[in-house]
Design brief:
The chain has eight helices and eleven strands. It has 236 residues and is an alpha+beta fold. The chain has two domains: 4-59, Alpha-Beta Plaits, CATH 3.30.70.3550; 63-231, Aminopeptidase, CATH 3.40.630. It has a seven-stranded mixed β-sheet, with helices on both faces. It has a four-stranded mixed β-sheet with strand order 1-2-4-3, with helices on one face. It is globular and about 55 Å long.
Length: 236
């Protein structure tokens, strides 16, 4: 399969079905809000290392979670019963993405795909009301978080972090339950992980994912600060 070169002068993206087996669809372009939104509407996302050009992906299979299929392990019930953590929305986006940028245990400092250009791009999307953060707190200290992009009835998850056990899982579960109440029908997890699989995530074919994207493009896009619509108060 060919890999397409994107011009900075046009927002055109080739059809996601043309991506190769490894998932790379295109190279180049930029990280402007207009291009990022055009990409996400088609189920395409950027992912590249600091020493690489911008790479645009449409993997097959795609790892997703349907909110109605969320799995909550029995071991998590005490956390919710005891209100172990508090969850807020869009209160510390820059801090969340910076924490996600930090290398995981066992990784070196250069092993991150969240480059400075990516941070700037998603901070701009946040200011425009498309990118959102979820913050998890314990005794007024942020111990976990995640961020992503919301379009239509789909939340495109990007990254998460946790400083204490189960903090990110607590935040993710809380978010999914909130989104389900708001009528969201899909969480895009992009790539498969054991962590997300334990929560109900599963792989679907690129074709199936693209059919969901076509339906999602017909949904109204709501922008704004989630803290106002979802309520920044302790999770119940």
């Amino acid at each position: 399969m060919p890999v397409f070169w994107l011009s900075k002068d046009t927002l055109f993206f080739p059809s996601p079905e043309l991506a190769g087996n490894e998932g790379i669809l295109a190279i180049g372009g930029d990280l402007s809000p207009e291009r990022l939104l055009a990409a996400y509407k088609q189920g395409i996302f950027p992912w590249f290392s600091p020493d690489e050009p911008i790479l645009w992906w449409s993997p097959d299979p795609r790892f997703v979670l349907f909110p109605s299929e969320l799995k909550i392990a029995k071991s998590m019930r005490p956390y919710f019963n005891q209100e172990k953590f508090q969850v807020t929305y869009d209160q510390a986006f820059s801090k969340v993405i910076r924490q996600c940028q930090k290398p995981r245990k066992g990784q070196d400092d250069s092993n991150t795909w969240i480059t400075e250009s990516m941070i700037g791009a998603y901070e701009m999307l946040h200011q425009l009301g498309y990118a959102h953060s979820v913050e998890i707190w314990e005794n007024d200290k942020m111990v976990g978080g995640l961020y992503g992009v919301a379009l239509g009835k789909c939340f495109f998850g990007e990254s998460m972090f946790a400083k204490v056990n189960n903090a990110s899982k607590f935040g993710f579960i809380t978010l999914v339950k909130k989104l389900e109440k708001m009528g969201y029908n899909l969480i895009d997890c992009q790539q498969q992980t054991q962590h997300l699989g334990s929560l109900g995530g599963k792989p679907i074919s690129r074709n199936e994912f693209q059919e969901l994207m076509k339906k999602n493009r017909k949904e109204k896009i709501l922008t704004g600060n989630w803290g106002e619509s979802m309520g920044n108060k302790p999770s119940q």
